[in-house]
Design a protein that fits this description.
It is found in: Endomembrane system. It is built from nine helices and two strands, in the order ααααααααββα.
């Protein structure tokens, strides 16, 4: 009799455990279905369009780092002839300093909101503001060095989002195409570093005298900032209108019942 009761209790326990396990599986399926329905369906194909756009964006951002180098020192000397060269070193370092600080911050923000697009847009806006400050440098009497340094600090902060493009290239490509995808973004950075200083030659005909437009002097020194404002606008429009994030299914996803549903980035 006691054995029969124990057997019935064991059967009841097994039935309850089975029901609980079934309930957990159903909840897991509901969560997984909700996550996938609320975002773009993952794909196994490399998102080449968005990766190429990422390469263009990295090119645009790197140009703004390199294009100012040939003219910054001559420009500050025309505004402040008694400036010592040792003081100018801080201006050169300002861009890279804030880029180092803001790169991990952009990365943390991107992970927090599960997207790359919005940080890219904000980065372009910040860089545009930095270039606008540089363009207005001629109006800041007796504070030229500090204003130039401030403009480069701002531009460097905005460029911190370029690190997101490399990360995106790796997550939006299959394992077979990953090296090529990352090389696309890295190539944009390399080409921008090479082309940037050469673009200064375009403004040589303006000379130091330049032209005055609505009280703003456009010459060989200020024209790079104006060009960067234009290409920032182009980059902003490209990201806003053409950049679409894609999610790649990992090749080694563990589909066992003990694993939680995989997270899927939102498409914006």
């Amino acid at each position: 009799m006691s054995s029969k009761i124990d057997s019935e209790e064991d059967n009841s326990t097994l039935i309850n455990q089975s029901k609980k396990e079934k309930g957990r599986n159903e909840e897991r399926e509901e969560v997984q279905n909700f996550v996938i329905e609320d975002s773009e369906k993952p794909t196994q194909e490399t998102a080449w369009k968005s990766i190429y756009i990422g390469g263009i964006c990295s090119f645009i951002q790197t140009i703004q780092f390199a294009i100012f180098f040939p003219s910054m020192w001559p420009y500050i000397l025309t505004l402040q002839p008694d400036l010592k060269q040792s003081s100018f070193g801080a201006v050169i370092a300002a861009y890279s300093f804030t880029q180092c600080i803001f790169s991990p911050l952009f990365g943390y923000w991107s992970n927090k909101i599960s997207q790359v697009r919005l940080p890219m847009i904000i980065g372009f806006i910040i860089m545009a503001f930095g270039n606008l400050v540089y363009l207005s440098l001629q109006f800041w009497n007796d504070h030229y060095l500090y204003v130039m340094m401030f403009s480069r600090l701002i531009a460097g902060a905005g460029s911190g989002n370029v690190s997101l493009l490399r990360a995106y290239a790796s997550t939006a490509s299959t394992s077979k195409d990953r090296s090529k995808a990352i090389a696309c973004v890295s190539g944009g950075i390399a080409i921008g570093s090479m082309v940037g200083p050469a673009l200064q030659l375009l403004f040589t005909p303006l000379g130091a005298e330049g032209i005055t437009f609505f009280g703003l002097k456009i010459d060989i020194y200020t024209a790079p900032a104006l060009l960067c404002l234009v290409i920032n606008t182009i980059g902003l429009l490209i990201v806003q209108l053409a950049f679409v994030e894609k999610q790649i299914i990992l090749d080694n996803v563990d589909s066992s019942e003990g694993e939680d549903a995989p997270k899927v980035n939102r498409n914006n």
